[in-house]
């Protein structure tokens, strides 16, 4: 129990440091582009598997093409953002990570909910998602505010 309290205090002191948010907005954008490219590249081998499955099942398997993109993205986010580093490959490349304000680690389900809210927010309120970062504390996006999360630099 004392280790959890100490760990939470260390995270909280890091989250209170304003230097942890320097350049986060632009780093998030570039991390998103890297992750988007990775998911697109992952779709190639999985798409080939679905193609072969469709041939074997006389076209029935091709129905999986409709859910392939979101499914690959969800598995990618679950395993990267929901992992020990609390960052996707793009986020690690840009030196940022996702933290919860309550100090608990980000698990796979929480990571998927965070991403789904991001995409839902972009579909419905595209400009508002990024505009919120100009006015919110800690450069948080709309879905960060809803979930109690913040993106910080890993080098600070």
From TrEMBL:
Keyword Transmembrane helix: yes
InterPro entries registered for this protein in UniProt: Pra-immunoreactive, RDD
Keyword Cell membrane set for record: yes
Pfam families: RDD
Compartments reported by the entry: Cell membrane
Keywords: Cell membrane, Membrane, Transmembrane, Transmembrane helix
Entry membrane topology: Multi-pass membrane protein
Protein name per UniProt: RDD family protein
Organism of provenance: Kumtagia ephedrae
Classification of source organism: Bacteria, Pseudomonadati, Pseudomonadota, Alphaproteobacteria, Hyphomicrobiales
């Amino acid at each position: 129990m004392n280790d959890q309290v100490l760990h939470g205090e260390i995270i909280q002191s890091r989250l209170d440091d304003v230097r942890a948010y320097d350049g986060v907005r632009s780093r998030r954008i570039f991390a998103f582009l890297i992750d988007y490219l990775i998911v697109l590249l992952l779709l190639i081998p999985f798409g080939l598997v679905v193609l072969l499955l469709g041939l074997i099942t006389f076209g029935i398997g091709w129905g999986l093409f409709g859910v392939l993109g979101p499914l690959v993205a969800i598995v990618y986010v679950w395993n990267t953002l929901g992992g020990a580093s609390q960052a996707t490959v793009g986020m690690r490349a840009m030196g940022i990570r996702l933290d919860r304000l309550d100090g608990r680690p980000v698990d796979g389900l929480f990571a998927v909910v965070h991403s789904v809210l991001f995409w839902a927010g972009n579909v419905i309120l595209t400009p508002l998602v990024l505009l919120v970062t100009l006015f919110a504390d800690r450069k948080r996006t709309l879905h960060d505010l809803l979930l109690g999360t913040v993106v910080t630099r890993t080098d600070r």
